[in-house]
Q: What sequence folds into this?
């Protein structure tokens, strides 16, 4: 049994079947990529996993617990974090202040920033946030206003905000979208290092095949809302069904 199981998930938007009978089994501690042409239903699937969308039918189970019927915040508290396609950070706050918000949110299940019992625990939270910034190479930028960061740094900050919560499952929606090749390669290296250094499962939605083949241990190809093939990367390359799905892209 995997850490995340999706069974018979269907989602319609009016007359459009965005997801049709999706079944997925994500192995614990793996890096699993979900690829597919534009409009295949990748973001819709991710929104179902984090509770932003409720499927019409089917089940989603994380570590044996049902995800459906929980709010996005409750799902986050279960140990699922998500890096968005467009970074969701607080642009008017400093880099360090951005880091403190998820630290406190994780702490007591609320967003009360005054919930620190002692100076000692506040100090340890700041140290934790700073160590995480160090890990994503952002320590020197801790006092910068987040809105003024480069696109790559905004993504690194968002990733650090997710990781500081110590999620068991990290969902990444096109983590390198809009990045130049050098920054993409830096992100690949960072994700490899993050995966190697902790007990974490990663699900990556990605359009860039270079990223997918550099990171994933398993790949699911989604086409028109339905998984077409699932296999190891070597078997996905050149798969006739995959080529067919991408024709006309
Ligand atoms: P992908 O991320 O693979 O590009 P999406 O999951 O964003 O695909 O979209 C799948 C399909 O569902 C597309 O045809 C898209 O236009 C449609 N869709 C997505 N979200 C909505 C929505 N909120 N309302 C109506 N249609 C939607
Ligand atoms: Mg998308």
A:
């Amino acid at each position: 049994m995997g850490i995340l199981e999706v069974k018979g998930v269907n989602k319609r938007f009016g007359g459009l079947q965005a997801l049709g009978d999706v079944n997925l089994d994500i192995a614990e501690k793996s890096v699993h990529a979900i690829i597919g042409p534009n409009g295949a239903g990748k973001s819709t699937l991710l929104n179902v996993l984090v509770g932003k969308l409720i499927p019409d039918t089917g089940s989603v189970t994380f570590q044996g617990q049902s995800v459906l019927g929980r709010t996005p915040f409750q799902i986050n508290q279960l140990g699922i974090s998500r890096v968005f396609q467009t970074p969701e950070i607080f642009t008017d706050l400093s880099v360090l202040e951005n880091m403190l918000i998820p630290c406190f949110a994780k702490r007591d299940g609320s967003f009360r920033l005054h919930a620190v019992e002692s100076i000692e625990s506040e100090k340890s939270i700041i140290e934790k946030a700073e160590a995480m910034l160090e890990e994503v190479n952002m320590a020197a930028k801790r006092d910068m206003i987040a809105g003024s960061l480069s696109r790559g740094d905004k993504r690194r900050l968002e990733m650090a905000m997710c990781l500081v919560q110590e999620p068991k499952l990290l969902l990444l929606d096109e983590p390198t979208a809009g990045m130049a090749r050098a920054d993409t390669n830096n992100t690949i290296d960072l994700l490899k290092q993050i995966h190697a250094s902790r007990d974490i499962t990663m699900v990556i939605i990605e359009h860039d095949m270079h990223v997918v083949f550099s990171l994933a241990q398993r790949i699911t190809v989604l086409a028109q809302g339905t998984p077409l093939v699932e296999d190891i990367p070597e078997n996905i390359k050149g798969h006739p069904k995959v080529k067919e799905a991408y024709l006309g892209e």
User: Anything to note?
Assistant: The two ends are 35 Å apart (CA to CA). The chain is about 40% helix and 25% strand. The first strand starts at residue 4 and ends at 13. The mean pLDDT is 89.
